[in-house]
Design a protein that fits this description.
Blueprint lengths: L4 E12 L4 E8 L8 E8 L2 E9 L6 E5 L2 E4 L12 H6 L1 E7 L8 E7 L5 E6 L11 E9 L5 E9 L15 E3 L6 E3 L2 E3 L9
Antiparallel strand pairs: 1-10, 2-7, 2-11, 3-4, 3-10, 4-5, 5-6, 7-8, 8-9, 11-14, 12-13
């Protein structure tokens, strides 16, 4: 039994500036076994520089992909510890804040709430070539072969700054400008048509 794969991408008209924060709410009804995953990606010029995901069939923990590769939350040095599926099933808000580039790369802070009360992780964005400020100008959400629905909602930038390009399909996701830069109207849920089973 297999399930469809869904990906939704949205562009920030103005790249995320250092010390601005991108937040998104995520609740999962279930992931499944090996070969299934869900989460979101931040990109610079079409290149993935950060990913937060739950990977089926592996450790019961969120995974973080950045300059250091893919690391489970429990193993992040100086991080806030494991983020199990029970937290994701109850709903989380992930807040990502990039810093200013230095000699080792572009640092970031990731906060997961309400898991263990604002669980905080520090890292460096993934990059190749010369170290420079990484301008995040796109985010993607994905749901790959999961057994249950995943819901993503309320993508927000604070303080006010980048706005989203007009969505290609209003039936997938609708946004309206808000005081915080982005405000979601309706849910960004990957459900309905994506849950048609295929043999």
């Amino acid at each position: 039994m297999s399930y469809p794969t869904e990906d939704i991408s949205r562009t920030l008209i103005t790249p995320l500036a250092p010390n601005q924060s991108f937040s998104i709410a995520w609740q999962s009804g279930g992931i499944g076994n090996a070969g299934s995953s869900a989460g979101f990606i931040l990109q610079h010029g079409g290149t993935t520089v950060f990913q937060l995901a739950f990977i089926g069939g592996n450790k019961n923990d969120l995974s973080i992909t950045d300059k250091n590769g893919t690391t489970y939350a429990a193993a992040v040095v100086g991080g806030g510890g494991k983020i199990p599926f029970a937290d994701l099933g109850g709903g989380i808000v992930a807040t990502f804040t990039p810093g200013t580039a230095n000699s080792t790369g572009t640092p970031y802070v990731l906060t997961i709430n309400p898991a263990k009360g604002n669980t905080r992780f520090n890292g460096t964005l993934k990059y190749t070539g010369t170290v420079a400020t990484i301008a995040i100008n796109q985010f993607d959400i994905f749901d790959h072969n999961t057994t249950q629905d995943n819901f993503f909602n309320s993508p927000t930038v604070t303080p006010a700054g980048p706005a989203l390009a007009t969505p290609k399909a209003a039936s997938e996701l609708t946004f309206a400008s808000g005081a915080t830069g982005l405000a979601a109207v309706g849910a960004m849920g990957l459900r309905g048509r994506r849950k048609r089973k295929t043999a």
